[in-house]
Amino acid sequence: MKILRKDLRKAGGFISVVPEDVEDIWFLYSLVRKGDLVKASTQRKIKQEGKESRRRWLLMELETDETVADLHQGLLMVKGRIQSEHEDVKTGSFHTLHIGLAERVTIHKTHWDRIDIDTAHRLSDVTKKDSVCVALTTETTASVFLVTTARIETCARAKVKNKKDLKTELAAVLGVHGKGSSLVVVGTQSKKSIGPLEEALEPVLKKTKRHYVWDVQPNTSVRSIMERRDVLEKIKETRLAEEGLVFAEAMRLIEEAPEMVSCGIEGVEGECRRGNIKKILFLDAIFTGEDRKRCIPIVDFVRKKGRQMCVISSFGYIGDTLKKLGSVCCIKERPGGWDGC
User: Fold this and answer.
1) In whole angstroms, what is the distance from residue 99 CA to residue 76 CA?
2) Three-class secondary structure of residue 281 per DSSP
3) Distance CA 146, CA 72 (A)
4) Of 104, 115, 168, 230, whose CB count within 10 A is highest?
5) Domain 2-43+53-123 and domain 132-234 have a common topology
6) Is domain 241-332 classified as CATH 3.30.1330.30?
7) Residue from 174, 164, 181, 166 nearest 204 by CA
8) Which residues does the chain have with pLDDT short of 70?
9) Tens digits of per-residue pLDDT, 103-141?
């Protein structure tokens, strides 16, 4: 995310940014709420009396009514009422902004609460942004995925006749999608093919910071790979690994020591009052629902005390599980207090 200008005062502050990748679109989706003023360039069909209607580019500001993120297209759609004045456009009429990559957008809020400010700081932190390219292969098939904190994207699926064609196809796909990733993970179901496969892909793999080739079990999923501690340790300085490691620790404690975990807003509120939160996972959706106000003092406590906090995308590989746990889950500093999950 390219930050152009920002003033995060609690009253009347704004931020002006240019999203550079799909993860940035997710951050903007997390930041924009109903009632916010959003300004961006857009096209609108203009009707003039006695003339044919035509489309014009306008710099338009809306009061947000609804937001939708299309991560496959890299678009944030903001629907609301027009607040800016334009010739032949009625102020107060509805319009939808389609905000894509490399397009400037400015967000004004009448009040920036603790969650808004925290989100704005996270979207400007590029040091932890990263992706993992995962390729799963058999002797004749290959599927390539790009994993970010926002989602899992299927980049390519290929079916070939022989191992030679598979290596060629895989090298071509990884050359496009793996070059920007810190880690390329290649899993093959045949132990005999690990050496030859790594040798064939060496020209591509050596261009990344790190790579990892090993055998996997049949029907291995991208999620199971991303939950492997050895994979996460290789990217431990990134936000993706931070989220994965905290999630894995919470899942382990739920099984082995449930008294050390509390899930759901009510339980986590209780641990916050006791000052008993060590690490916490929020699902992004909880910040847009009725429990947002209940989350603000929790976020405030966690940040003031320097505790570890992760906000998980509903579109990502962890999102479904965290939703089942009540959309928020904390690891306690000490046992007791509120019951766990």
Assistant:
1) 5
2) strand
3) 12
4) 115
5) no
6) yes
7) 174
8) 50, 126-129, 139, 160-167, 170, 174-180, 182, 189-201, 203-210, 213, 215, 337-341
9) 999 999 999 998 999 888 887 776 566 778 888 877 677
